[in-house]
Design brief:
By secondary structure, the protein is mainly alpha-helical. The chain contains 20 helices and no strands.
Length: 520
């Protein structure tokens, strides 16, 4: 018999544990770049340096107000010129309208003066609208501009785009050909050689002609002074611009190539509530305002005699309440929009919400008219001011919104946000255009001068210090008024014109209003 050998596995035959693999390095896929990307990369760096130079000017000037003027206008115009050259002309009509609106908003800095309230809010709106306008510049998948979700979508997308494509800067640096770098080195070498030759040639020419030597000495002193004052500053801004350009280039590249940084999807939540909730709220508010308007009608038709019997002077009654009434109108508008948006639009309950909302709108119009009437009484007695012009503007905005809300109540497809966004933006530009400071000065001077001519007693006073702190545009009106009534104000006017000239000394704070005021 044959022997069978059974081989038993030993320890050396045990399966060996798998050798851990080295981690695979995931390489970033390079982004495609072209000549336009390289050009915008360089121009964007210069724009970032200009941005730091303009925004740092208020820190250089020791003043209470913010001396920003033409610098902001130039900065905005340069930015949109950069975007236009990179992306081409705006592809949508709404993008063109928003571009025009943003440029007009930036233009206000170069036109008006000394209105810190306007400068603050115009700067805020300019920053807020820039991402909205840039994503409206190009066509693509996004919420339309009349959808309220587009604000969150475009701002979130713009913030992400600042970081998602920062690798484009590395790809741009790698795309520079060695031949181009060599040309730049030769140009720098040529400039260095020319500077060395100028050091030898210029003294020889100066010694050869006395007049040339005199002119050269004067110009050299001026240019050296300017160079020493600005060279260090601009070197600092260029360094800071190099820090900011990677993020700006990332954002601009994502606009040109939306697939690299798509906009986030923001879905709206459809919340609903029983109509009875809003019916109750609207019924209570409607009854409260009916009671208030009944009291208002007694004061309106009763006149000063009725108020005197109640122990209230007519002046005190006229001067109070308009700010509160305007605030109540905007509160009513908010409640009504919530009721329309969150109610289920079916059955008799929805019809009751529509009727209650319509009554609330009609009562709000009456409240708005009461506020306008009180404000007019107050202005004719005490004059017009910047805040009172703003109050009239707020009443106009509220009236436009109330009409739009009425359309929203009875037409479910009506886009209220279209009016809220577009209408308020247009009315804000109109408020900048009418120049409330000049309007206040013109009204007060006209009324006061008329009463002075007719020897009519009036409480409308011309506060020259207050008006000139609003704008330099009022200097012409004040100068003519004081000369007509024979009040010496030459020293005061001269001081204000000197301040206007100081504002125009630097191009970053230059504005047309101060420039015209500095020239009597």
């Amino acid at each position: 018999m044959e022997k069978l050998e059974i081989l038993m596995p030993g320890p050396e035959d045990a399966p060996k544990p798998p050798t851990p693999r080295a981690p695979v390095e995931v390489k970033r896929k390079p982004l495609t770049v072209d000549r336009r990307d390289r050009q915008v990369w360089l121009l964007g760096w210069l724009w970032c340096a200009l941005m730091w130079d303009v925004l740092s000017f208020p820190m250089d000037a020791v003043r209470y107000d913010i001396p920003l003027g033409l610098g902001v206008t130039v900065l905005a115009a340069a930015f949109y010129a950069l975007v236009w050259g990179y992306l081409g002309a705006p592809q949508t009509a709404s993008g063109r309208w928003l571009l025009a609106g943003n440029l007009l908003l930036a233009l206000t800095f170069a036109l008006t003066s000394r209105s810190e309230w306007f400068r603050m809010w115009n700067g805020f709106f300019l920053i807020l609208l820039t991402p909205i306008q840039l994503y409206e510049w190009i066509e693509g998948e996004k919420h339309p501009w009349f959808d309220p979700r587009m604000v969150a979508q475009r701002w979130a997308g713009g913030f992400q785009a600042l970081f998602l494509d920062t690798g484009i800067n590395l790809d741009l640096a790698r795309s520079l050909k060695h031949r181009k770098r060599k040309k730049i080195l030769w140009v720098l070498a040529g400039l260095l050689l020319a500077a060395c030759l100028a050091v030898v040639v210029v003294p020889l020419l100066a010694s050869a002609d006395a007049l040339f030597d005199q002119i050269l000495a004067r110009w050299t002193t001026q240019w050296l002074t300017w160079l020493l004052r600005t060279a260090g500053r601009w070197l600092c801004w260029l360094v800071l611009g190099a820090v900011a350009i990677p993020f700006l280039m990332s954002w601009l590249y994502s606009l040109r190539h939306p697939e690299t940084a798509p906009l986030p999807k923001i879905a709206g939540k459809s919340l609903t509530a029983e109509p009875v909730l809003w019916i109750t709220v609207l019924t209570v508010l409607d009854g409260l305002y009916l009671l208030f308007l009944a009291v208002q009608s007694m004061a309106l038709f009763g006149g000063p005699e009725y108020l005197a019997r109640a122990g209230i002077s007519y002046a005190d009654y006229a001067r109070s309440g308009f700010f509160q009434l305007v605030g109540v109108v905007f509160l009513n508008l908010s409640v009504l929009l919530l009721a329309v948006q969150l109610s289920r639009r079916e059955g008799k309950g929805w019809r009751a919400v529509q009727c209650g909302g319509t009554l609330l709108i009609l009562e709000s119009f009456v409240l708005l008219g009461s506020a306008a009437w009180r404000m007019t009484l107050y202005v004719t007695t005490f004059g017009l001011t910047f805040k009172r012009v703003l109050t009239y503007w707020g009443m106009l905005v509220a009236a436009v919104f109330l009409v739009s809300a009425l359309c929203k109540v009875w037409r479910s497809k009506f886009r209220f946000f279209r009016v809220l966004f577009g209408g308020s933006f247009a009315l804000w530009l109109a408020l900048n255009a009418i120049n409330p400071a000049y309007l206040s000065a013109w009204y007060n001077v006209s009324v006061s001068y008329h009463c002075w001519q007719k020897s009519i007693e009036t409480r409308v006073t011309v506060d020259a210090e207050y008006l000139t702190d609003l704008s330099y545009d009022v200097l012409g009106e004040l100068e003519g008024y004081f000369s007509e009534i024979g009040v010496p104000a030459d020293e005061f006017i001269a001081l204000k014109r000197a301040q206007a000239a100081e504002d125009c000394r630097d191009w970053r704070s230059w504005n047309l209003s101060a420039f015209l005021a500095s020239r009597p």
